Amino acid sequence: NKEIQQAGYSISPVGIQTYTGASSAINLFPNPANDIVTIRLNQVQPAEVIVNIYNNVGELVSTENKGLYSVGEAEIPLSIEMLVNGMYMVEVVSGTNRSSSKINVSH
C-alpha cells in the first residue's frame, strides 16, 4: 500500500520466526584443560544452554543446565576438575541446536 509506505511503515506478514539450519558451533579452550574449560558459542536465538559431557565409551558422565543466554556470542565456564584424565565429548544443547567438540582432560 503506497500510503503506508509513504508514512514510513512497511507491510510484512505476521508469523512466528523460525531458525532452521542455524549453526551454533562451539569452541573449547584451553584444550587440553585441567580444571575449568571455557565454552565459546554464538547463540542464534535466546535459549537455555545445557552442557552434557560423555566419556570415551559414550556414557553420560555430567550434565549441567547453564541457564538462559540471549542472542550473540557467549563464553560459558565449565568445571571439569571432577573428571579423570582422558578424552571427553562436550555437547552443548541450545534450544533445538546441538553442537559438540572433544576435550582432553589432563590434571
Count of DSSP H/I helices: 1
Report strand order across the widest sheet.
4-3-6-7
Helix content: under 10%
Structural class from helices and strands?
A: mainly beta
Radius of gyration: 19 Å
Distance between the termini: 66 Å
* Global geometry: globular
For the secondary structure, the number of strands is: 7
* β-strand amount: over 45%
The major β-sheet equals:
4 strands, antiparallel
The low-confidence runs, each spanning 5 or more residues with pLDDT under 50, are 12-23
Mean pLDDT: 84
The string of secondary-structure elements, in order, is HEEEEEEE
Observed structural traits:
4-stranded antiparallel beta sheet; mainly beta; 1 helix; 107 residues; single chain; 3-stranded antiparallel beta sheet
Short note summarizing the structure:
By secondary structure, the protein is mainly β. The protein has 1 helix and 7 strands.
Break the fold down into its secondary structure elements and pairings:
Blueprint: H1 2-6, E1 26-29, E2 36-43, E3 47-54, E4 60-69, E5 72-79, E6 86-94, E7 97-105
Antiparallel strand pairs: 1-2, 2-5, 3-4, 3-6, 6-7
Description of the molecule:
This protein has 107 residues and is mainly beta. It has one helix and seven strands; from the N terminus they run αβββββββ. The strands form two sheets. A four-stranded antiparallel beta sheet has the order 4-3-6-7, with no helix packed on it. The chain is globular, with a radius of gyration of 19 Å. About 11% of the residues have low confidence.
